[in-house]
Specification:
This protein is α+β, with helices and mostly antiparallel strands. The chain has one domain (5-88): Alpha-Beta Complex (Aspartate Aminotransferase, domain 1). It contains 3 helices and 6 strands; from the N terminus they run αββββαββα. It has helices at residues 5-15, 56-60, 89-103, and strands at residues 21-26, 29-34, 37-43, 46-50, 65-68, 75-81. Strands 1-2-3-4-6-5 form a 6-stranded antiparallel β-sheet. Strand 1 and strand 2 form a beta hairpin.
Length: 113
């Protein structure tokens, strides 16, 4: 499964000012790990964001945003934003900041032995 290379470059450019960023290909897309935790990713042409659960309902009411349902089950705290929801630099930055702000309180997934 391919992912949007233009979006990957856009996210990569935004994350270039941060330290401790790692890119991983997973879920058929690309994920940007920040401080060892999943933060932002790309699935096909949509940007995936890990956000606070308490902001989830308000987020999905915004233009171009929907609940991530990668396995046909809604995943609270994870949203997908389509091109229309991040067309402007201000909208793109709003979503990125929401994910980065949450990253500080997010728990890292357990590492497999």
């Amino acid at each position: 499964m391919a992912y949007n290379q233009t979006l990957a470059s856009r996210i990569r450019n935004r994350f270039s000012v941060l330290e401790n960023v790692e890119e991983k290909e997973m879920m058929g897309g690309l994920v940007f790990m920040y401080n060892g935790k999943m933060c932002v990713g790309i699935i096909k042409d949509e940007m995936m964001l890990r956000i606070p659960r308490e902001l989830h309902e308000a987020a999905v009411e915004q233009n171009g945003c929907r609940t991530m349902d990668f396995t046909k089950r809604p995943m609270w705290g994870y949203v997908l934003v389509d091109e229309g929801g991040m067309a402007s630099n201000a909208d793109f930055e709003k979503w990125i900041c929401m994910a980065l702000d949450f990253n500080a309180q997010a728990k890292a997934s357990k590492k497999k032995k």
